[in-house]
Amino acid sequence: MELSSSDKERIQHQYDALAKKTLVGEAKSHRRTLAKRAAREVTFSDLSESELAQLFTTDEYESDYFRFQVSGFDVLVKNELLAEALNALPENMMGFINLDDKNYMPIIGFTTVDLGCERGNNAYNMVQKTGTPFATAYIASVK
Hints:
Blueprint: H1 5-40, H2 49-53, E1 66-70, E2 73-77, H3 80-88, E3 96-98, E4 103-106, E5 127-128, H4 132-142
Antiparallel strand pairs: 1-2, 3-4, 4-5
């Protein structure tokens, strides 16, 4: 059975109309999807510093640190100024930490209680710093 040219034309128009409706529906659906996505998305410039910090990590390498031997332990220091200050100390002063401008204490024998990681009775073995004339005389005698 052969279709007449008017039947072929009618079928072609029906197919074109169906294809056009399908494409219009898909376009609407795509625009809705894009609108929903745009409502959820935020540009990097709109994020706060704390939110940005959650989006990346930094690698740390041993070469980024200065290594010191203190009481038989390797101590890694990242701050360059602190590393220079530690280098300037005589070898026998490496086992001390400055608490403030008047007191320092030995690092040897630190426990988790001493460091404040755990609760407990921690007695500090603080040493009082002396004035400049006494300190320079002592350091000169040690060198």
